[in-house]
């Protein structure tokens, strides 16, 4: 049957080797197809969804439409789909005025089926018939056995409680509401915790009916796929069957307020934070976004950036950051200054420096650095684990959904060249956006007294009935008939062999290489062995934070930064712990990682040599300022990344390598950094560490490139290193965790928790087996998803394990503590009762294989091969694990239950979060952290 889409525009997007086709449907829907040879294909649906209040209605709706549809009546669709799929991305995203539903995958047949799941979810969701889905995903009432309402629950509610725990987010949201008062853009698209409970089912259904219509739909296809097949399916199965086409939703007008006075915002923190927001009347176009990004980077990003430099040098802040609002029709820039001893003085200094830059002009070298790095990043197109097509969708939506071009974002190199050739553009923006902009607002934090506890009250009969219905809904198993319609790839379609990443090593010269197509970019890793007996080894993370940011023998730090930016695509420092897969031994390395265009390889070696051998540790004030920045960033991450901190601390008590990692990079490192008072003594220790670490004896090297051939440069670099470091002995026995206790709780100013349990599943003599990865997928997708997310209301959960014998279970933005740890401790009992059908088990196996085979950027492939080598993990290990995964059976999985019995001796727990809920689990005590 022919479809009702009409091709309205085509373009060739040479920068990304893509043919672009824009279609319009008779209903008003649009479809954009970016056709290229990318096998990581993407399908997506987007709707304009401008918020009209702070109830988070469209955020809740995003969750709810994925809570089951007529064709796919699944209670937790994303979790069910994710159990066993070859998809590389399954998610949905809500902004202030739009919602995106992208799915990506490497198997075209499966992606087409997944597209149908998403189409049915948005056009035929069960939320219009079942209120309990809103209660599950949005907000519900916690009712005790006496019928008293004791608080709120719900996945979105707890997610936003976690989000609003960050002082910077609270400050920015409040300032935004003042600046855009009178327009729809005052509202938070995610919802405010105090307003989400006001959301009614009637209003949610009204919003769905108005906004989720064909006339308001934007479809997106990316990669090597059959567009006609999708066009026919979307039209014949959905758009043409919709009873109401709806109306095209207009983008709300942006209204801004001028001449606003400074604003003070109470937050749960004693750290002074200042945000300066600059609203612009600049259209949210790719060109304007790039221009403002260049200016913001120039002013704030680098150590030599003029505003950052002034604030740091004058001790007016702990850290400086900036952001650019891409997700409203007009761009908005903001500057965040954290840990301010004198907020008003910091604000005034920002504007003084901006005036100086405007009057004296841009530093040509620093500006050229911005251009060079922008071009490098455009050409590299490294988006981490995110599919390229999903990243492009996010960029496109900021133009396309506002009536702009669906293609303009792809002309980045052209736009960059225009900026370089017209320097007055940047000067004009500096004046209009930052200096002569009457739509500017400064907001300061003020410490808020602790809010009163929730006052319990008697539940109404309706509330009790709803709560009962919700519990029945949550406790009901997924219907087998519903599960049968989930797209499933047969195991016979799965590749039987693990991917073999090229890796060649010369053990005598200590050089290794990964040769893969890299598009003219080479990735270098300079490695230096470290261990606990290196003099002052505990400071190597401090060294990592200082190198490249302080003066060297031949360069000031400003000149060095410019040299790096002009010649390299990036240079950074990492410390790795390589945990052997064969025993409990480990080794660790200090790494200088560089990405560079092939033509600039000589500069990479030259600059690295300068930094590691010639860095000077004499500027005490500069070093203290950089350490303050580090402490501010670490402290803020206790709220935003609490799960990682909790996992790292808990695991430190189970294996020697993790003790070492925690001491030198975890909370213990932060705590020791906080207690440090003698910077001069530290600098003397760093000098000794520098001489002890960067020697011939410690050196090895890895590179990822399109072809071999760096042996001459590597040899010259090696010869430039000193033979030996200073002869200083350290104690042969070090108590890494002296003064720190197992099973500890870290109290932060947040109403939710980040819980983690580390478990040594080899403690009783068990050995790692590939089928354990299948068990991990089952435990996370079945037990944790049900008990912690759906029933417990936590925003997230997870389980991971390593072949060295440690398993990690965690939850985040979780309202519970004791209940969550009870679930963690029940994994053995859950395992011994497993009895999956062949189809169910196949899905879990496929889900694990997908994680192993998901597409990776060439840089990550090289790093993976290197780290496997350093951990003694071979291709044969990977292949054996893959065969064990594919051969997993119910009997084999049940036999693993004994290894996952949780005892005091083989496990450790840690929580970062709210200290108001008391628990007897934390025998190691509590540590209060004020963030």
Secondary structure layout:
Blueprint (H helix, E strand, L loop, with lengths): L4 E9 L4 E8 L4 E6 L5 E8 L8 H9 L11 H7 L3 E4 L2 E2 L3 E8 L2 H16 L7 H7 L2 E4 L4 E6 L1 H9 L3 H13 L21 H11 L5 E7 L3 H11 L25 E5 L5 E11 L2 H16 L4 H8 L5 E7 L4 E9 L4 H18 L3 H17 L7 H13 L11 H10 L1 H13 L4 E8 L9 E2 L2 H15 L4 H5 L19 E3 L4 E5 L5 E10 L9 H7 L10 H11 L2 E10 L6 E12 L3 H14 L5 H21 L1 H10 L4 H10 L1 H9 L3 H15 L5 E7 L5 H10 L23 E4 L5 E8 L10 H20 L5 E6 L4 E9 L3 H8 L1 H6 L5 H16 L4 H13 L4 H12 L3 H5 L12 E7 L12 E3 L3
Parallel strand pairs: 3-10, 11-15, 18-22, 23-27, 23-28
Antiparallel strand pairs: 1-2, 2-3, 4-7, 4-10, 5-7, 6-7, 8-9, 9-16, 12-14, 12-15, 13-14, 17-18, 19-21, 19-22, 20-21, 24-26, 24-27, 25-26
Protein described:
This protein has 931 residues and is of the alpha+beta class. The protein contains 33 helices and 28 strands. The strands form 5 sheets. Strands 1, 2, 3, 4, 5, 6, 7 and 10 form an 8-stranded mixed β-sheet that branches. Strand 1 and strand 2 form a beta hairpin. Helix 1 (57-65) crosses helix 4 and helix 11 packs antiparallel against helix 15. The radius of gyration is 28 Å and the shape is globular. The termini are far apart. The model has no long low-confidence stretch (mean pLDDT 91).
């Amino acid at each position: 049957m022919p479809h009702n889409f009409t091709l309205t525009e085509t373009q060739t997007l040479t920068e990304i080797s893509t043919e672009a086709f824009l279609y319009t449907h008779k209903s008003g829907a649009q479809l954009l197809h970016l056709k290229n040879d990318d096998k990581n294909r993407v399908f997506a649906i987007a709707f304009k969804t401008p918020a009209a209040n702070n109830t988070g209605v469209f955020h809740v709706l995003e969750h709810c439409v994925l809570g089951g549809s007529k064709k796919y009546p699944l209670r937790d669709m994303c979790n069910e789909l994710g159990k066993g799929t070859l998809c590389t991305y399954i998610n949905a995203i809500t902004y202030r005025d739009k919602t995106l539903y992208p799915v990506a995958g490497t198997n075209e047949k499966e992606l087409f089926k997944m597209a149908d799941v998403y189409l049915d979810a948005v056009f035929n969701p069960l939320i219009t018939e079942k209120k309990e889905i809103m209660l599950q995903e949005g907000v519900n009432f916690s009712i005790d056995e006496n019928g008293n309402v004791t608080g709120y629950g719900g996945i979105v509610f707890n997610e936003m409680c976690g989000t609003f725990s960050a002082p910077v987010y609270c400050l920015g949201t409040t300032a935004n509401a003042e600046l855009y008062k009178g327009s729809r853009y005052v509202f938070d698209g995610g919802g405010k915790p105090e307003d989400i409970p006001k959301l009614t089912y009637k209003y949610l259904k009204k919003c769905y009916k108005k906004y989720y219509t064909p006339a308001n739909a934007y479809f997106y296809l990316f990669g090597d796929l059959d567009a006609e097949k999708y066009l026919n399916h979307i039209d014949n199965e959905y758009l043409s069957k919709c009873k109401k086409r709806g109306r095209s939703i207009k983008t709300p007008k942006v209204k801004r307020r001028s001449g606003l006075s400074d604003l003070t915002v109470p937050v749960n923190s004693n750290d002074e934070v200042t945000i300066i927001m600059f609203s612009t009347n600049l259209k949210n176009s790719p060109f304007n976004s790039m221009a403002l990004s260049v200016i913001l980077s120039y002013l704030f990003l680098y150590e030599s950036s003029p505003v950052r430099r002034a604030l740091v040098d004058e001790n007016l802040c702990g850290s400086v950051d900036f952001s650019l609002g891409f997700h409203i029709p007009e761009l908005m820039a903001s500057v965040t200054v954290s840990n301010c001893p004198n907020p008003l003085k910091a604000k005034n200094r920002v504007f003084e420096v901006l005036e100086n830059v405007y009057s004296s002009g841009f530093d040509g070298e620093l500006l050229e650095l911005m251009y060079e790095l922008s071009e490098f990043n455009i050409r590299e197109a490294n988006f981490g684990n995110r599919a390229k097509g999903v990243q492009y969708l996010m960029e496109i939506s900021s133009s396309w959904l506002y009536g702009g071009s669906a293609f303009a974002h792809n002309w980045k190199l052209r736009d960059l060249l225009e900026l370089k050739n017209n320097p007055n553009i940047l000067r004009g923006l500096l004046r209009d956006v930052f200096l002569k902009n009457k739509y500017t607002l400064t907001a300061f934090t003020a410490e808020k007294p602790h809010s009163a506890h929730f006052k319990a009250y008697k539940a109404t009969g309706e509330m009790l009935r709803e709560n009962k219905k919700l519990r029945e809904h949550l406790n009901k198993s997924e219907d087998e008939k519903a599960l049968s319609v989930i797209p499933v790839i047969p195991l016979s379609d799965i590749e039987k062999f693990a991917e073999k990443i090229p890796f060649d090593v010369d053990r005598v010269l200590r050089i290794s290489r990964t040769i893969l197509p890299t598009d003219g970019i080479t990735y270098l890793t300079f490695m230096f062995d470290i261990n606990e007996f290196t003099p002052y080894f505990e400071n190597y993370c401090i060294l990592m934070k200082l190198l490249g940011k302080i003066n060297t023998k031949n360069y000031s730090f400003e000149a060095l930064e410019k040299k790096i930016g002009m010649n390299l695509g990036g240079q950074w420092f990492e410390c790795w712990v390589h945990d052997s897969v064969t025993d409990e031994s480990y080794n660790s390395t200090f790494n200088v990682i560089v990405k560079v265009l092939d033509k600039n390889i000589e500069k990479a070696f030259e600059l690295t040599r300068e930094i590691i051998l010639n860095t000077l540790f004499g500027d005490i004030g500069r070093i203290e300022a950089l350490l303050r920045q580090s402490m501010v960033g670490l402290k803020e991450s206790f709220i935003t990344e609490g799960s990682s901190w909790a996992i790292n601390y808990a695991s430190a008590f189970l294996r020697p390598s993790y003790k070492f990692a925690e001491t030198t990079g975890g909370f213990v490192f932060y705590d020791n950094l906080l207690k440090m008072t003698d910077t001069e003594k530290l600098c003397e220790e760093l000098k000794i560490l520098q001489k002890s670490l960067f020697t011939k004896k410690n050196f090895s090297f890895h590179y990822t490139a399109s072809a071999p051939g760096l042996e001459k440069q590597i040899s010259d670099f090696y010869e430039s290193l000193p033979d030996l470091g200073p002869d200083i002995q350290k104690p042969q026995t070090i108590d890494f965790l002296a003064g720190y206790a197992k099973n500890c709780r870290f109290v932060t100013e947040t109403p939710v928790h980040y819980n983690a349990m580390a478990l040594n599943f080899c403690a009783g003599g068990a050995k790692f087996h590939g089928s354990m990865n299948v068990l991990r997928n089952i435990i996370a997708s079945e037990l944790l998803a049900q008990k912690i997310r759906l029933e417990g209301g936590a925003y997230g959960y997870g389980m991971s394990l390593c072949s060295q014998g440690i398993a990690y279970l965690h939850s985040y933005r979780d309202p519970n503590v004791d209940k969550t740890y009870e679930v963690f401790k029940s994994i053995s009992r859950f395992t011994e009762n497993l009895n999956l059908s062949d189809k169910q088990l196949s899905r879990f196996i496929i889900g694990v294989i997908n994680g192993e085979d998901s597409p990776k950027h060439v840089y990550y492939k090289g790093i993976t091969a290197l780290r496997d080598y350093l951990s003694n993990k071979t291709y044969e290990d990977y292949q054996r694990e893959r065969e064990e995964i594919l051969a997993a059976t119910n009997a084999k999985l049940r036999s693993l239950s004994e290894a996952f019995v949780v005892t005091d001796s083989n496990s450790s727990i840690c929580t970062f979060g709210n200290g108001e809920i008391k628990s007897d689990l934390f025998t190691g005590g509590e540590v209060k952290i004020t963030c």
